[in-house]
Amino acid sequence: MYQQMIFVNLPVNDLDASKKFFTELGYTINPQFSDDNAASVVISDTIVAMLLTKPFYATFTDKEIADATKTSEVLVALSAPSREKVDELVDKALASGGTTSGRTQDLGFMYGRAFDDLDGHTWEVIWMDPSAVQG
Predict the structure, then answer these.
(1) 3-state helix/strand/coil string of the chain
(2) CA 56, CA 10: separation in Å to the nearest integer?
(3) What is the pLDDT of residue 117?
(4) Residue 71, CB half-sphere, CA atoms under 13 Å: how many?
(5) Strand 6-12 vs strand 47-53: parallel, antiparallel, or unpaired?
(6) Which is the most buried residue in 20, 38, 45, 127, by most CB within 10 A?
(7) Ramachandran class of 26: left when φ > 0, alpha when ψ lies in -120 to 50, beta otherwise
(8) For residue 132, what pLDDT is reported?
(9) In this structure, are residues 134 and 85 in contact, taking their beta carbons and an 8 Å threshold?
(10) What is the pLDDT along the chain (135 residues), one digit of tens a residue?
(11) What is the dihedral of CA 89, 91, 93, 96, to 10 degrees?
């Protein structure tokens, strides 16, 4: 059965620093789709973050590349299997050079925190009680 995938393409200032940041979060780099211009960060079987140097990213668009430290261009949200895993991933990101983004959201049935990566892209990590989803 076909599973649709998502490839999030993000411009980065320093490809090596960004690769280090995401591997410190526990993700892997797929060397088959990585080179001096891009790194394929495997988030899951169906989610891949493509980190592209800004000159390479510019070859895919005629638009100005946003400075994500000043302008919000995307909010990438990832699910987590538990509240503890939300905290674990965000804490790893902060320890690896990321910065806190927004406030912790605790609605009881849903819990989330967010961080900005080295280039200012916002990553939200969310847990939702499965019983609340089914209900």
Answers:
(1) CCCCCEEEEEEECCHHHHHHHHHHCCCEEEHHHCCCCEEEEECCCCEEEEEEEHHHHHHHCCCCCCCCCCCCCCEEEEECCCHHHHHHHHHHHHHCCCEECCCCEECCCEEEEEEECCCCCEEEEEEECHHHHHC
(2) 11
(3) 98
(4) 5
(5) parallel
(6) 127
(7) left
(8) 83
(9) no
(10) 989 999 999 999 999 999 999 999 999 999 999 999 999 999 999 999 999 999 999 999 999 999 999 999 889 999 999 999 999 999 999 999 999 999 999 999 999 999 999 999 999 999 999 888 765
(11) -130
Residue with tokens 């080179």: 35
- Cα torsion 36, 42, 46, 51: sign: negative
Q: Which two tokens stand for residue 91?
A: 């804490």
Contact between 116 and 101 under an 8 Å Cβ cutoff? The reply is: yes
Q: How far apart are CA 82 and CA 87, in angstroms?
A: 9
Which amino acid belongs to residue 45? D
- pTM over 0.85? The answer is yes
Q: Could you give the CA distance from residue 116 to residue 72 in angstroms, rounded to a whole number?
A: 11
Tell me how far apart the alpha carbons of residues 127 and 70 are, in angstroms, rounded to a whole number. Answer: 27
